Backbone:
């Protein structure tokens, strides 16, 4: 195992002999892969940090690191796409059968062919996007891995620390109210990005996404920004009748409710706002290379509620609806039957599953698309969600639409 | 009176001995002025020379000499217009250099090894050319971060520039700032309409003072509020038929501002000219443009400005522009600074806000501030360790004891002093003069600057409006669509140029072994930009490539042995 500080390679024997320290620089190792249940190694963890932070340039949340690590753990599990599996079996069986009937050489040829097909299949499987489930529980990651890594190797520089939870039932301001001069708060911004959780918002601000793209960023859970600024910024935004609001959320039942809440009294009841949903929606998780947070729970049906609660079929139906459909009929209608089914079976795909650079590129593209829609008069308020971002591979969410919205740089006028 | 000039003051001239000398007397202990027509006042003994483009009542050099005798450097507060002046007081042997309040004209000086002072209104008039292997490194660093060289420094190792509203007195080398606009109240007791009403006649006055008494003149019209309001006021005063307006675009398939500029031209009844600038034309004129700039200016509108001047000179002799509205009244480029202030105050203690604030300001230029640690070679970075950090440039304007107390006003002051004087005015004035035109920026008039600072900050970036009070002041003159149009700025397709038409040119020039930037900049980083690899959606490689390309070409055309560089007015023997 290589030391992340001096790059010297220690064998197990050397590690044991040096009390689990690097033989060259004597820096302790955080993990011992031979005994770890996930075969975790310092180098693996370090590479995950490097990758999620775009080689140390971007800030990321603990959850983003968690998913990055899970991607690496999952990549160790080979995946044989069914078509290749059946193909390999057919070649193998055919070869053996032909060998018995004709000449034994064909048995060898058949087995070799089967192995080759399977190998090709596994290779192909690496490239195929598919949803998988995280191997390591998040709590285990925090408790046993992240904290251990930081104790041994020091605090991770670009890690956005979790923000304080919002006290139950609290509606007011969190933290001490920051005093701001009146000229800083006299303006109202053109657009705001609402993220589902505070950490995603903090991550974007740490990466200066707000600064680079002239947008305010607030979290739906009202935990970010703190020190009274949430209310200050919300107040500033409410003054803009042409505000563009973008929501970014998980593909989950709670996530999909964000869009519908934006025109309620808690958010922007009076602005005739342009509202855009940037995703995620279940389709992204179904088609993309996502890692889902949990195994789907056993499906709750009307029958199971009836059996368990002894309620009438009507009551059971209503209870089922409230349990599985916190979404408004409009929100549900925007989802395909497959997506609704995916959602009802308890799946969740989180935004945190994407690396910071992909989140930022997606939102950036969403901004451009939205601006173009508004400029060209294509914005329709009656459709649920103006924009969904479409995962078409790393870093690419939208094909350019012919004009160069994002391809020019603005300068002060030449007079 | 706007002919570039060059002068020299020898060390230790005994009082009473200096006089206007002929060029052949250079070096014999006299003051010498070349270019322009120096004037000597016999009663006071004051000699005055320099560049002076009057605005409003024109003064003769005789009157200016009298004013100087009367007020000293405070003369700057009495003299409107664009000027860079040198005064020699024969009786005391003192030389005073003085730059106008907005910094519309440049003025450079250097002290030679023998202790003489040389001064010139254009840096490239100094006798020797540039040593491209001996640049002033802090200026290089600041150029990369800002796209212009801010402050008193220049890329030349021993050449200094006067700040706007500054006077320097020799032989003491004493620096005086003769003008500081006063800040108005922060409170909103007086409604915005009141300030707008006061501003309106002033706007009309400053525009009128730039116009010829009769005949045709030109105005650069981008389609933004600032240039549109200058057109609208001029049309009100002189009638649209006397005005030629000029707009640009970069190709029919690219986003442009033509809809807005045409709307204003039609509204005001001007003779409107639209110029299409294909990338090849830009490249063909890059050298000619950069020859005219005394320090590199790395924004892609330099060449368009030059080409506009070349077109306009066929129709007119005087050209106006709308520069100044953004830096003085709170343009959209300040919005990131508001966002920074809001979010930073959530996480940072008040006494720790200053450094991040300065960093954010440099970052808000969206140039290479964050790339400096990779872009500059290790040798340059080592050399920079011992020089004052960039922060010191802005510190006097942002700390608690800064002249302005309101946050937005502080930004406006930095914008006016640095971006206004060192970038915008230098760019438009040098490139307009290069075409033989007299150019005016009425919105940079010191009376407008004073009026701007008198308005409470909350009336600048207010509600959903930028430059709210300015828009309010001229609301009746322009179509509603111009006042409420989405903010944009001139869109230059640099990102596309360096992917396509300029890719090869930039690659050959910037990655060559013989490139002039090679001793200073890490070519690997430039190579990365050319390949457009970045984890960030807002990587803006095009802007950065234009910035370094400008630097490279500028160094080539200004280096001492470059054959096409402008010949100095006069070379000492």
Residues:
């Amino acid at each position: 195992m290589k030391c992340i500080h001096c790059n010297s390679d220690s064998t197990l024997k050397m590690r044991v002999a040096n009390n689990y320290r690097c033989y060259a620089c004597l820096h302790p190792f955080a993990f011992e892969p031979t005994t770890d249940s996930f075969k975790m190694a310092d180098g693996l963890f370090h590479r995950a940090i490097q990758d999620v932070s775009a080689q140390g340039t971007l800030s990321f949340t603990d959850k983003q690191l968690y998913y990055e690590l899970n991607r690496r753990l999952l990549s160790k599990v080979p995946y044989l796409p069914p078509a290749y599996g059946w193909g390999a079996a057919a070649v193998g069986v055919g070869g053996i059968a032909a060998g018995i009937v004709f000449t034994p050489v064909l048995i060898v040829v058949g087995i070799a062919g089967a192995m080759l097909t399977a190998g090709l299949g596994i290779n192909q499987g690496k490239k195929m996007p598919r949803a998988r489930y995280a191997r390591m529980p998040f709590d285990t990651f925090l408790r046993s891995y992240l904290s251990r890594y930081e104790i041994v190797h020091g605090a991770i520089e670009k890690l956005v620390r979790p923000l304080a939870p919002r006290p139950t039932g609290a509606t007011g301001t969190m933290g001490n109210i920051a005093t701001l001069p009146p000229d800083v708060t006299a303006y109202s911004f053109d657009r705001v990005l609402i993220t589902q959780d505070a950490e995603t918002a903090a991550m974007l601000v740490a990466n200066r996404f707000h600064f680079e793209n002239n947008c305010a960023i607030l979290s739906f859970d009202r935990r970010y920004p703190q020190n009274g600024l949430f209310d200050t910024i919300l107040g500033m935004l409410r003054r803009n009748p042409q505000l563009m609001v973008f929501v970014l959320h998980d593909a989950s039942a709670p996530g999909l409710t964000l869009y519908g809440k934006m025109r309620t009294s808690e958010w922007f009841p009076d602005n005739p706002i342009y509202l855009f949903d940037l995703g995620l929606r279940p389709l992204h998780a179904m088609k993309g290379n996502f890692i889902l947070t949990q195994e789907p729970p056993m499906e709750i049906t009307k029958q199971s509620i009836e059996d368990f609660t002894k309620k009438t079929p009507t009551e059971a139906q209503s209870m089922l609806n409230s349990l599985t459909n916190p979404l408004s009929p409009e929100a549900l209608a925007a989802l395909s039957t497959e997506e609704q089914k995916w959602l009802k079976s308890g799946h969740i795909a989180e935004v945190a599953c994407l690396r910071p650079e992909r989140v930022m590129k997606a939102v950036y593209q969403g901004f451009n698309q939205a601006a173009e829609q508004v400029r060209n008069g294509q914005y329709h308020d009656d459709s649920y969600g103006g924009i969904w971002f479409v995962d078409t591979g790393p870093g690419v969410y939208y094909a350019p639409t012919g004009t160069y919205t994002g391809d020019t740089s603005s300068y002060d006028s030449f007079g | 009176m706007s002919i570039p000039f060059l002068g020299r003051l020898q060390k230790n001239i005994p009082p009473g001995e200096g006089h206007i000398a002929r060029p052949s007397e250079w070096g014999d202990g006299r003051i010498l002025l070349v270019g322009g027509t120096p004037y000597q006042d016999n009663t006071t003994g004051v000699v005055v020379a320099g560049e002076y483009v009057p605005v409003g009542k024109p003064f003769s050099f005789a009157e200016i000499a009298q004013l100087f005798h009367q007020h000293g450097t405070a003369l700057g507060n009495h003299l409107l217009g664009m000027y860079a002046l040198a005064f020699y007081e024969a009786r005391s042997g003192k030389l005073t250099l003085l730059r106008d309040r907005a910094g519309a004209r440049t003025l450079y000086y250097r002290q030679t090894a023998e202790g003489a002072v040389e001064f010139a209104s254009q840096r490239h008039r100094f006798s020797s050319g540039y040593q491209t292997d001996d640049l002033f490194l802090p200026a290089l660093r600041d150029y990369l971060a800002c796209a212009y060289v801010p402050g008193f420094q220049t890329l030349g190792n021993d050449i200094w520039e006067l700040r706007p509203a500054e006077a320097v007195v020799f032989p003491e080398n004493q620096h005086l700032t003769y003008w500081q606009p006063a800040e108005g109240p922060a409170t909103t007791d007086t409604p915005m309409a009141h300030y707008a009403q006061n501003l309106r006649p002033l706007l009309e006055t400053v525009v009128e003072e730039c116009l010829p008494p009769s005949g045709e003149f030109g105005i650069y019209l981008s389609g933004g509020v600032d240039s549109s309001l200058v057109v609208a006021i001029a049309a009100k005063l002189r009638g649209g038929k006397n005005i030629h307006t000029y707009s640009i675009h970069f190709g029919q398939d690219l986003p442009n501002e033509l809809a807005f500029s045409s709307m204003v031209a039609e509204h005001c009844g001007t003779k409107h000219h639209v110029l299409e600038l294909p990338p090849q034309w830009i490249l063909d004129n890059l050298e000619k443009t950069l020859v005219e700039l005394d320090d590199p200016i790395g924004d892609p509108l330099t060449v368009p400005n030059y080409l506009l001047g070349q077109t306009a000179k066929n129709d007119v002799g005087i050209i106006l522009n709308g520069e100044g509205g953004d830096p003085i009244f709170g343009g959209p480029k300040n919005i990131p600074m508001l966002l920074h202030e809001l979010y930073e105050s959530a996480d940072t203690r008040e006494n720790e806000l200053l450094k991040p604030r300065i960093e954010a300001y440099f970052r808000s230029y969206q140039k290479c501030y964050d790339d400096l640690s990779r872009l500059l070679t290790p040798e340059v970075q080592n050399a920079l360790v011992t020089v004052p950090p960039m922060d010191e440039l802005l510190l006097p304007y942002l700390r608690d004891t800064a002249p302005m107390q309101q946050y937005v006003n502080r930004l406006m002051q930095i914008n006016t002093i640095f971006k206004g004087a060192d970038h915008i005015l230098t760019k438009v004035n040098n490139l307009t003069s290069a075409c033989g035109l007299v150019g005016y920026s009425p919105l940079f008039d010191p009376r407008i600057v004073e009026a701007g600072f008198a308005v409470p900050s909350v009336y600048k970036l207010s509600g959903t409006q930028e430059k709210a009070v300015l828009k309010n002041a001229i609301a009746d003159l322009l179509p509603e669509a111009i006042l409420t149009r989405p903010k944009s700025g001139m869109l230059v397709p640099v990102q596309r140029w360096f992917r396509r038409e300029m890719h090869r040119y930039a690659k050959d020039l910037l990655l060559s072994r013989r490139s002039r930037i090679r001793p200073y900049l890490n070519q690997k980083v430039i190579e990365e930009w050319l390949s457009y690899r970045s984890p960030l959606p807002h990587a803006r490689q095009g802007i950065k490539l234009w910035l370094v390309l400008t630097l490279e070409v500028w160094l080539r055309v200004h280096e001492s042995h470059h054959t096409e560089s402008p010949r100095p007015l006069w070379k000492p023997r």
Notes: Residues 20-29, 563-573 of chain B have pLDDT under 50 and may be disordered.
